[in-house]
Description:
Blueprint: E1 11-16, H1 21-37, E2 45-50, H2 56-70, H3 78-85, E3 88-92, H4 101-107, E4 113-118, H5 125-134, E5 143-146, H6 154-165, E6 173-175, H7 183-194, E7 207-215, H8 224-227, H9 231-249, H10 258-271, E8 280-285, H11 294-298, E9 308-313, E10 325-330, E11 337-344, E12 362-368, E13 372-380, E14 389-395, H12 398-402, H13 412-422, H14 431-451, E15 456-458, H15 466-473
Parallel strand pairs: 1-2, 1-4, 2-3, 4-5, 5-6, 7-10, 8-15
Antiparallel strand pairs: 7-11, 8-9, 9-10, 11-12, 12-13, 13-14
Helix pairs in contact: 1-2, 1-13, 6-14, 9-10, 9-14, 10-14
The structure holds NADP nicotinamide-adenine-dinucleotide phosphate (NAP).
NADP nicotinamide-adenine-dinucleotide phosphate binds next to helix 1.
Amino acid sequence: MVSRVIPVEDFDLVIFGGTGDLARRKILPGLFRRFLSGQMPKTSRVIGAARSDINTDGYRQMIRDAIAEFGGAEKENTAGIEAFVGQLHYVTVDAKGDGGWAELHDLIRFEVVNAFYFSVAPSLFGDLAERLHTYEIADADSRVVVEKPFGRDLASAQALNETLAEHFKESQVYRIDHYLGKETVQNLMAVRFGNMLFEPLWNNHYVDHIEITVAETVGVGGRGAYYDKSGAMRDMVQNHLMQLLCLIAMEAPSEFESDAVRDEKLKVIRALQPVEPHHIVRGQYDAAGDEPSYREDAGDPRSFTESFIAMRCEIANWRWAGVPFYLRTGKKMKARTSEISVVFKDLGHSIFPGDEKRHRNILSIQLQPNEGMQLQVTIKEPGQGGMRLVDVPLDMTFADALGPDAEGAADAYERLIMDVIRGNQTLFMRGDEVEAAWAWTDPIIEGWQARNDVPKLYDQGSSGPDDAMALMHREDRKWRDIKG
Ligand code: NAP
């Protein structure tokens, strides 16, 4: 099945921080793929903007190199690369100075969609927003894209929101959480709200518990000092895991429209209960042979920052009362995976003699490394051995069913950037959502600080500290195995 690629409207996209790691590793290679797919118009332009004193030719070479380093199979398409870099421009600007801004103003075509990607440190957002207006570059139709981290607590997130609100309406602000750009995340909504099958079961009558695991095999490595100021709660739970939790738990919006969807997500966050300290396990990876420990990577032998967290949360509403949501994320785990599992309740009674095993339907949704869904169902074991039951996965991996297709192959960043150009905010976090998420996580983090909570050590290549296992075991439940 080949899906149609619909070109977006003509645009000029300015990437502040266009020379940075994110721009070279994700944004530009992603735009190149959208260019090759035919989605990026041949007249559209991408304007890199940063302090580095290079010109457009130098920038084009930088992006050729970036595609060679970070691109996939498409990096062999030299003709395509040349055509793409021909649509790139560069302006030297300092967010805190005045040089280059008039030049940027003259370069922009105001008759097409204008988007400004703030791929710089959040401390520069205010300076950029202010100069975009002083130099009359942004107007009421422009869009701004901002990267994570969006604050480190409620107060800083509010301050960032206020800074942006001084110059832009909420409908112009696109806060990126790249997890939301994944095909499977959108499919989650399609599966929930486009099928009769699941929705009647999607509640505390039929669901035993829900698990969300985001495991990484890498440590904090070279960015240890930076990571040590945030930790797993701020870096992963407050944004990615909570966003996934919202999509799993939210009520059906009245229509698939950005504010309707975000209103429902916000209600979930607001219904999250405070978490008891004994329902949270924090961990730090230990040294393993020549592999440094978390504290060595962080450069702080007394660091109390967590590289792992497991927690049990509850949502106080009619649909979910009494259903635990177990969240888990960590570095240096046994495999790289992002998986959501909806574990349905036991049947309660088996009519099959000798069948004492607990059979449960589990809908598991993988976001990485491969995107797909499986539904575990119980069937008769093939053969002549009588009515012996066995649990097998019904595989709904999309690539197998739908085949390779250009739009489907878009990665999260590509899809989200195209959504910015289309003016579709559904997959972007609204300011009040981000603030509500911090309002829930802040007291948890403050509690650790007040108690001098020390994270438990765990082995590299494991599933986290033993206490994380106990969090489920003591309720007669079990985490799903972390498999890549
Ligand atoms: P980076 O590699 O340090 O790049 C920062 C960029 O900002 C460079 O292009 C730099 O270029 C530019 N810059 C710095 N000061 C400037 C100023 N005063 N005026 C204009 N430009 C300035 O950082 P990054 O990793 O690309 O990250 C960018 C943003 O994305 C950050 O907010 C980060 O938290 C977020 N993010 C990054 C990743 C990732 O994978 N890298 C993932 C998620 C979120 P010049 O030095 O030439 O000015």
